[in-house]
Specification:
about 1150 residues; alpha+beta; Rossmann fold; Immunoglobulin-like; 6-stranded mixed beta sheet; 6-stranded antiparallel beta sheet; 26 helices; about 30% strand; flat; golgi apparatus
């Protein structure tokens, strides 16, 4: 295969001792090299799993053509030495190595390695240990080694394990040398390329020289099997060539070319058919040869990467784009050179890739992609046969063969045309096909069958049908009617299913003609009967347009489309159905229709209603009108200006939605709240389907859901009669909607599961119901936010007879909340002795703030431990209201009031959603929370107009509604907002697990010293530990039970010295008190913290708490007082020092007959 022609790294060897013949076989057994790793200065580590090596004898010629064939340059030069005599080495071998090394080092970027070969018995010879001068190998290392170790010893042994280890050392050195040489080549090429590229704008810059340098780097990568980086170089060369082509700077190319023999038929992937690199270096390569060579090199590298699909895809792009350039030079290359070149190129690529595909492990998706790409290339080649066949009168100039022609059918070859260059196709298959019609048919059918198999393997139904139709047309043209009937038996109807009406009719005509020629009367009648529908376009018989959508609240049937249809016939008739399909960007569709209406000559107007209710923006896609078995269609999306409409939720129809509940209980199964509002509809029966759209969301199966039904009066839920019932769940998961009157609200809870912590979910809600005998459908996609705006942290502080629980509320997110109320719900075990309340009606919680609440808990007097499994869990309930919800609720109520006053309430949902999403972005909720004034900012009129672009005649009215709202609501006070949002409230219940302490130890450090502490003086203390089981609620504790504990005194040794047990194990009974002596010695003056004492149980299963009464207690330590007495007599001083109190206090002097006493 041409695409798998590979290159190997060249390694030379020099053998002047005749040992290569003994090493060659063993050496080649260790090839190819495996697991090489190259780290470039800029990129990641490149892993080279396998690297082929080409071993050649060292050439002493120093001539070298730089950059000509970089893949043939040696990367490593090996010199094998086999000499055990030091004198021989000194006189002969050393000089030989030096001469070889001088030549090797004179060659750029080549590494060298001296391999000293010896047998294992020579290495173990005892005489070598008495050789004071050292071995020959030692001398070689001393004479020739540089900073890098370039000498290696190969010890041949009869033992396989020792022989393997010796070879591994040599192979490792060879890998190191090759990688070092490659790195030098890489750096040299990068530097040369960077330098030449920087000179691109200078006069005299040559693209061909730049190409040779860049390709040299690519060839270097290819030799090292780093094919991805090599391909990147050619892709960059292709991009730079297109820039040159764009700038029309093709002075480096001789001419366009494509005039050499066999240029139209040669294998496009063969890079050896011409001396391309020589032509490039000589600046004489043509544009045709250059682009073919560049494409072939890219495909060759893709072949080494086993990417047959990518080869086919690139071939399609290259052939289609380069064909335009060839066509521009058709006067020079000759007529039908292009068709022959495309045919040959496509077949070359397909044949190469079919050989490459079995060597590539492809999954199903890659196999389908390969078949599709291969089929398109075969199809492209077959289209060239259509052109050549028509030109040489082998095919008729009619459909479907003329679909391949992109220009006027050329003149016959028998006609003289002096202006066109005479060109002879050199492709042998095409030559035979041109000379013989039978050979043409064989080639045409074989090529089409190959393309059919490829399309069949890629599930390309339309392409498959098209080619089958071409085969049938060929058989029909050749009057091979039986073969034509066999092919056309099924495909006309399948063409109709795909909407190819013209082709279907053409094939039906030929099918009927074949049956007539074969005298198949019954089959002919069956074909002409046309039991299926006949599809035709509206034009020229009819003209249709959608004028508007009418949204009338008073119309119980909902909105309707106003359609105008012009009948250009002179007679009246009745159509069965007229239907228009509207589609949205979310893959939703709605059909509007009307049945059994008369259509008169001229202009007719109709109202088309829909049984579906799904609000959103829709485009008019197509219209269908059925009259018997004839269906007229028209696609509006093909028109230059597409019509779009906004469909709103009609208040008369049933609406269903799924929302987040107002009350959330953390730690319990979560649920959504489903609401079904009947509106003005009387529901006879129905089904509700909830389909999760968000990933990871699911609804557990249930047999029924408990629902509550309430009445709704003037958009407000009535507090009157409430009925309850269970809603049945069908096998398909749909929920039964019970018979309901108008203006009723059905609510029920549905639990859900989510595999990951999303902050919002999307659910598609669909309701099918019957109202007044009509089946209607409601559809919407609801977004449910489930994230919590606040979080809670807890802190437990135990005491002998109570527990203090501190709850900290912090804000999650940037939108402030109002904390309306907090409450702590007690459990069977604990009572809340003190429940704090807010001093203000509410508390605003902003970001980076927290609100703290402290509760006092005591053991419940009614609980005596009789229930061992009684839960200690209490619940902290927070009632809150988000400031964003507060404002949005006010906006919603205010806008609804304005809309109702202007009879535009049908636009409520769309208007409110978009005002919240787009126009309230500038609202500063922090400022609102601090000032209690709503500042809406300036109204963006342009954005406002863009929101209502699909509302037609209602656009201006809706803009006026927004302007009025902005005018009346800007700078609204919190008191006004609370008039409509005061009842808005959400609640979160946080579970709080109060730890169950089996044992509570009260620790007190009693200091027996009555006077002040003096630094350095010991202080005797008593450590008293009292045991209590007050907080052990799980069971009654026997007074005889004994528990093992230990205490640990945490001493800051910078401040204190401890005398006594720092840690001590002891036992306690229930209610017992123990005392332990310890001594503390203060080391510093000032206020010192009393050391902390911790008591813990030796049993890890017993949870104990410690109440340290001296926690954070400080002791004042004073300095030691000193005094000195001086006796002064006849200029002599006697100095004695004794201790006393009051250092730093008021000093005094005594003068008494030659004696001076000083205290300090």
């Amino acid at each position: 295969m041409v695409v798998l022609d590979g290159k190997k790294v060249t390694v030379t060897y020099t053998d002047e001792f005749g040992i290569w013949q003994h090493l060659a076989d063993d050496f080649r057994q260790h090839l190819p090299l495996r697991n090489l790793h190259w780290k470039s200065a800029k990129g990641p580590v490149r892993n080279i799993p396998v690297l082929g090596v080409d071993l050649k004898r060292f050439n002493t010629e120093t001539t070298e053509r730089s950059h000509m064939l970089p893949e043939t340059l040696p990367y490593l030069n090996l010199y094998f030495v086999n000499c055990d005599d030091n004198e021989t080495y000194r006189q002969i071998v050393k000089t030989q190595i030096r001469e070889w090394l001088n030549i090797a080092e004179s060659r750029r970027n080549q590494e060298w390695l001296i391999v000293y070969v010896t047998k294992q018995e020579n290495f173990r010879n005892p005489a070598r240990y008495f050789n004071m001068k050292g071995t020959v190998f030692d001398k070689i290392k001393a004479d020739f080694n540089t900073k890098r170790d370039r000498c290696v010893q190969l010890r041949l042994s009869e033992s396989e394990s020792e022989d393997y280890e010796a070879w591994q050392e040599l192979i490792a050195k060879i890998k190191e040398g090759i990688l070092s040489s490659f790195d030098q080549f890489f750096k040299q090429y990068e530097e040369d390329i960077r330098r030449l590229d920087s000179q691109r704008s200078m006069i005299g810059w040559n693209y061909c020289t730049f190409f040779i340098l860049k390709e040299g780097l690519a060839l270097t990568f290819e030799v090292m099997n780093i094919f991805e980086d090599a391909l990147v170089q050619y892709d960059e060369l292709e991009a730079s060539f297109f820039q040159v082509l764009k700038d029309r700077a093709l002075a480096w190319f001789g001419n366009f070319g494509a005039t050499d023999p066999n240029d139209d038929s040669a294998n496009i992937l063969d890079v050896k058919k011409k001396q391309y690199r020589d032509l490039i270096m000589q600046n004489s390569i043509s544009e045709f040869d250059f682009r073919c060579y560049l494409f072939a090199r890219q495909c060759q590298l893709l072949g080494r990467l086993h990417k047959s699909v990518e080869i086919c895809r690139r071939a399609q792009i290259f052939i289609s784009t380069f064909s335009r350039s060839i066509k521009e030079h058709q006067a020079n290359v000759g007529e039908y050179f292009l068709e022959s070149w495309i045919f040959s190129s496509c077949m070359s690529v397909v044949n190469e890739c079919e050989e490459l595909a079995p060597l590539t492990s492809m999954d199903d998706s890659n196999t389908i992609a390969f078949n599709a790409a291969k089929g398109e290339l075969l199809d492209l080649a077959r289209k060239q046969l259509d052109k050549i066949g028509i030109f040489y009168d082998h095919l008729p100039a009619s459909l479907p063969f003329t679909t391949s022609l992109n220009e006027t059918i050329p003149t016959s070859p028998n006609e003289d045309n002096e202006t066109k260059k005479k060109f002879v196709i050199t492709n042998k298959e095409l030559q035979e096909a041109i000379d013989s019609q039978n050979d043409f048919d064989v080639l045409y059918l074989s090529l089409t069958n190959r393309a059919l198999r490829a399309y069949e393997g890629s599930a390309r139904l339309r392409s498959l049908l098209r080619l089958q139709g071409d085969v049938a047309a060929l058989h029909f043209h050749r009057k091979q009617y039986e073969d034509a009937v066999q092919v056309m038996e099924d495909i006309p109807w399948r063409y109709g299913e795909q909407g190819w009406i013209v082709v279907e009719n053409n094939l039906l005509f030929k099918f009927a003609a074949c049956q007539k020629e074969l005298d198949e009367v019954k089959n002919l009648c069956s074909t002409l009967e046309k039991g299926e529908e006949i599809n035709r376009q509206f034009k020229p018989i009819f003209a249709v347009s959608v004028s508007s959508i009418v949204d009338d609240i008073g119309d119980e049937d909902g909105p309707y489309l106003s359609v105008e249809l012009t009948n250009n016939l002179s007679t009246s008739f009745t159509f069965d159905q007229l239907a228009i399909r509207l589609v949205s960007g979310q893959s939703e569709e709605i059909w509007f229709g009307v049945c059994k209406e008369e259509i008169k000559p001229g202009l007719n107007s109709y109202k088309l209603y829909s049984d579906n209710s799904a609000s959103g923006n829709y485009f008019v896609e197509n219209v269908r009108m059925s009259i018997g078995k004839v269906t007229f269609t028209h696609n509006f999306l093909n028109e230059s200006k597409k019509k779009s409409f906004r469909i709103n939720e009609h208040p008369s129809v049933l609406r269903a939605q799924i929302i987040a509940p107002c009350e959330i209980h953390i730690g319990e199964p979560q649920y959504f709240l489903v609401r079904i509002f009947t509106g003005l509809s009387h529901v006879d029966e129905g089904k509700l389907a909830l389909e999760p759209v968000s990933e990871g969301l699911s609804f557990p199966k249930s047999e029924k859901y408990h629902s509550i039904t309430k009445s709704v009066i003037d958009e407000k839920i009535s507090e009157g009669k409430v009925s309850e019932q269970d809603l049945e769940v069908f096998e398909d998961g749909k929920i039964k909607i019970p018979p309901s009157q108008s203006n009723q609200l059905i609510e029920f809870q549905i639990p859900y599961d989510c595999t990951w912590g999303a902050i919002e979910h999307k659910v598609k809600v669909s309701a099918e119901y019957k109202s007044k005998g009509k089946l209607r459908v409601f559809t919407s996609v609801d977004t449910i936010k489930v994230w919590l705006p606040i979080s809670v942290n807890e802190l437990n502080i135990f005491r002998d007879d109570c527990l203090f629980l501190k709850m900290d509320i912090t804000l999650q997110g940037s939108v402030p909340v109002r904390v309306l109320k907090t409450d702590l719900i007690p459990s069977k075990v604990y009572d809340v002795a003190d429940n704090p309340s807010l001093t203000l009606p509410s508390l605003n919680l902003f970001g980076k703030q927290h609100a703290s609440y402290v509760y006092k808990l005591t053991r419940s007097k009614d609980y005596h431990g009789e229930e061992k499994s009684a839960s200690t869990q209490i619940h902290f309930v927070v009632d809150y209201r988000s400031l964003q919800d507060e404002i949005e609720n006010y906006v919603e109520q205010t806008l609804n009031t304005i809309l109702k006053s202007r009879n535009l309430f049908q636009h409520s949902q769309f208007l409110i959603e978009n005002v919240k999403e787009h126009l309230l972005k500038s609202v500063d909720y922090v400022s609102y929370g601090m000032t209690d004034v709503l500042d809406l900012g300036e109204l963006d009129v342009t954005q406002c107009e863009n929101l209502f672009v699909t509302h037609g005649s209602a656009k201006e009215a809706l803009i006026d509604v927004v302007k009025e709202f902005w005018k009346t609501s800007n700078q609204t006070s919190n008191e006004e907002i609370m008039l409509v949002s005061n009842d808005l409230k959400s609640s979160i219940s946080f579970p709080v697990n109060v730890p169950s302490s089996k044992v509570l130890n009260t620790v007190e450090l009693i200091i027996s010293k009555s006077h002040d502490f003096i630094v350095g003086e010991p202080c005797h203390c008593r450590l008293i530990v009292r045991h209590s089981s007050y907080w052990n609620h799980t069971s009654s504790t026997d007074s005889k039970d004994t528990f093992e504990f230990f205490y640990d005194v945490h001493v800051d040794f910078d401040n204190w010295l401890l005398a006594g047990h720092k840690k001590l194990c002891f036992t306690l009974k229930v209610g017992e008190t123990k005392e332990f002596p310890i001594t503390l010695v203060p080391l510093k003056t000032g206020h010192l913290l009393v050391p902390f004492v911790r008591v813990a149980s030796l049993n890890s299963h017993i949870f104990s708490e410690t109440v340290y009464l001296n926690n954070a207690e400080q002791i004042l330590v004073r300095p030691r007082t000193q005094s000195a007495t001086f006796f002064i007599e006849q200029q002599h001083r006697i100095h004695s020092i004794h201790s006393g109190a009051g250092f730093g206090g008021p000093g005094h002097h005594h003068h008494n007959e030659g004696m001076e006493n000083v205290e300090f």
